[in-house]
Design goal:
With 72 residues, the chain is mostly helical. It has one domain.
């Protein structure tokens, strides 16, 4: 219930300003950024997986070419 509804005065913490100065700006208290959706991270993960697959395919092709060139 809010103070307005209860008729009580607002409670003020005497050391609020000091505590806010010390702890109020830390990322675990006030995040540097907030994501609206997980779309960005999902796209990043998918892109990284595709890069990994492309790298594996390239390495496999090089391996096959090296084996082929040695046998000629």
């Amino acid at each position: 219930m809010s103070n307005k509804a209860s008729g009580q005065r607002a409670i003020k913490f005497d050391l609020f300003d000091e505590m806010d100065t010390i702890f109020g700006r830390q990322p675990n208290v006030q995040p540097l950024a907030v994501a609206r959706t997980s779309r960005g991270i999902n796209n990043m993960l998918a892109t990284n997986q595709m890069k990994g697959q492309k790298e594996k395919m390239r390495a496999a092709k090089e391996h096959i070419l090296l084996k082929t060139n040695r046998s000629i």
